[in-house]
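User: Okay, second chain of the day. Same drill as before: sequence in, structure tokens out.
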Amino acid sequence: MDRQIKAEKAWMIPWLISEKLGGFEFQRLLALTMKEVKSLMTYPEPLHRFPKEMSLNFHLEIQHIEDQYNGRADNIWLNRPSSAKVVYRFLQLRGAGPKIATMAANILARDFKVPFADYYSIDISVDVQIRRVFTRLGLTKPGESNESINYQARSLHPEFPGLLDSPCWEIGRNWCKPYNPACDKCYMNQVCPSANQTKDAPSLT
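Assistant: Same drill. Structure tokens below.
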């Protein structure tokens, strides 16, 4: 759901659906038809910019979890699999590209402390915030590809490059704005080469 809408809104969608359904148990979700999922996503107001596309993702992913993981999503990360295996498994879900798949693995490892055999295949999920912060910190040059930014993150923290994701996103969202950045409030201002040069600088996105 975290595509082309604000993250906060995307992450609210499962809760909003559970409110409409009266619960979010897997068997309850599995029983829903595609038509019912679309209705939940669309009425009385759309929960996403693309309710039809997200309804299809939602419905097919529930079926995938039933068919491939015996109806238990946590089987995706059971028994300390490698980080590459977890990312690969998320990539099998409709609508999940590398950015979404690595974000999901990152959240499991970083926030929920799910143990993996390793963490070096969990990359940062490059967006405009992270791109701007990497550029202003002098870690990458303006206009570099997502792949280049990911490889730089790997070089900085080979064991778990994804750990750089959350702090960089936080800096970009809260202080390192496209215009008039609040450098004096940012905890990286002492080492940021752009801290005293970006007051009226153009956006680096």
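The chain is about 50% helix and 0% strand.

User: Thanks, on to the next one.
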